[in-house]
C-alpha cells in the first residue's frame, strides 16, 4: 500500500479530535471509512498508532508519526494554495515573509506601492520567526524575506536593511521606566524577566549572565507584550518593536547594553516573477524601514 496524503490527513484528524465520529464529520466521510483507512495504515506499518480502541491516545509510534504527518499535510495544503494562486495570478504573484516586528513596519508601505504600480497583482504577506522566513526562501515559498541577522542562503541575496538598539520593554508605570536614571543590566537582573527568541541575538555575555535565571520564555510577541503590560514582568526587545506596542507599555534603552539587532532583506534569485520581486526589494530598501 502506498501512503497517500489523504491517509495522513485522516490519521491526523483522528489524532486531533480523539474520536472517529468527530473526525469523520470533519473529513466528510463515514465513520466506517475512517476506521478502515486507519486499519489499513496500521497494517501497512505493522504497528499500532493508537493505544486501545477509543482513538483518544496515541502510541509512542503514533506520536512520532503524527508530528511528521501533520507537517506533510500542512505543506501539501499550502502547496495547493500556492499552485492555485499562481494559476490565477495573471498579473503576477509576489510572496513576502517577515519577522513580525519588521512586517508591521514594511507590509503596509510595500503593499500600497506594489498594488498601485501593478493593478491586479496577487500578493501574499506572512509573518513568522526568522527560521521559518529562511525556510520559506530556501523551499521556494517566498520571493522576499525580512529577518533578523545575516544568513547565507543558496540562490538568495542578503542585503542589510537597518539595525536598531535593544532596550527594556515593560509596563509604562514600571519603576524602571518612570525613574530619572536609565536602567542598567544590574537593575534588569533584580526584577522578573521574560526571555524571548530575540534575546539570542544579543552578544553581550553580561546580558546573558543577567537573565540566566529567567524561568519563563515567550515566543509570541503579542503574548509577550500582554504579560509585561501587567507590570509584573520585563523583557528586552529591539526598538523597532516598541513603535507598535500599546500605550500602556514602554521602551527604554539600557545604559550598559549597546547591542543592536541587524535586519536583512533577502531576495530570491529564482522567483517566477523576478522583476516584481526586484521592484519590491528596491522599494523596501529605499522606503520600507523609515
What share of residues is helical? 40-55%
**Uncertain ranges:** none
- CATH architecture type of the largest domain: 3-Layer(aba) Sandwich
CATH class of the largest domain: Alpha Beta
Q: State the fourth-level CATH superfamily of the largest domain.
A: Periplasmic binding protein-like II
How many separate structural domains? 3
CATH topology of the largest domain: D-Maltodextrin-Binding Protein, domain 2
> What is the approximate shape?
globular
Biggest sheet details: 7 strands, mixed
Mean pLDDT, rounded to whole units?
90
| Overall SS class | alpha/beta
Oligomerization = single chain
Distance between the amino and carboxyl termini: 56 Å
Query: What is the succession of H and E elements?
Result: HHHHEHEHEEHHEHEHEHEEH
Amino acid at each position: 500500500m502506498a501512503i497517500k496524503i489523504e491517509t495522513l490527513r485522516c490519521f491526523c484528524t483522528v489524532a486531533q479530535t480523539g474520536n472517529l465520529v468527530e473526525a469523520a464529520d470533519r473529513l466528510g466521510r463515514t465513520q466506517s471509512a475512517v476506521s478502515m483507512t486507519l486499519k489499513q495504515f496500521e497494517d501497512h506499518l505493522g504497528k499500532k498508532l493508537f493505544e486501545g480502541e477509543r482513538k483518544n491516545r496515541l502510541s509512542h509510534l503514533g506520536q512520532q508519526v503524527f508530528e511528521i504527518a501533520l507537517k506533510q499535510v500542512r505543506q501539501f495544503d499550502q502547496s495547493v494554495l500556492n499552485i492555485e494562486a499562481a494559476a490565477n495570478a495573471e498579473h503576477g504573484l509576489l510572496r513576502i515573509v517577515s519577522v513580525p516586528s519588521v512586517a508591521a513596519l514594511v507590509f503596509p508601505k510595500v503593499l500600497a506601492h506594489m498594488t498601485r504600480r501593478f493593478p491586479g497583482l496577487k500578493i501574499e504577506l506572512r509573518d513568522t520567526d526568522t527560521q521559518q522566513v529562511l525556510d520559506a526562501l530556501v523551499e521556494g515559498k517566498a520571493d522576499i524575506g525580512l529577518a533578523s541577522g545575516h544568513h547565507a542562503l543558496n540562490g538568495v541575496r542578503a542585503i542589510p536593511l537597518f539595525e536598531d538598539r535593544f532596550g527594556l520593554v515593560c509596563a509604562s508605570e514600571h519603576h524602571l521606566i518612570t525613574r530619572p536614571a536609565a536602567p542598567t543590566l544590574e537593575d534588569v537582573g533584580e526584577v522578573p524577566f521574560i526571555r524571548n527568541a530575540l534575546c539570542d541575538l544579543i552578544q553581550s555575555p553580561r546580558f546573558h549572565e543577567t537573565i540566566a535565571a529567567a524561568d519563563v520564555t515567550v515566543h509570541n510577541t503579542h503574548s509577550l507584550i500582554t504579560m509585561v503590560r501587567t507590570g509584573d514582568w520585563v523583557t528586552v526587545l529591539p526598538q523597532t518593536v516598541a513603535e507598535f506596542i500599546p500605550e500602556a507599555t514602554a521602551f527604554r534603552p539600557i545604559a550598559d547594553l549597546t547591542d543592536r539587532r541587524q535586519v536583512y532583506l533577502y531576495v530570491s534569485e529564482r522567483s517566477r516573477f523576478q522583476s516584481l520581486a526586484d521592484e519590491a526589494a528596491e522599494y523596501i530598501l529605499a522606503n520600507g524601514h523609515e
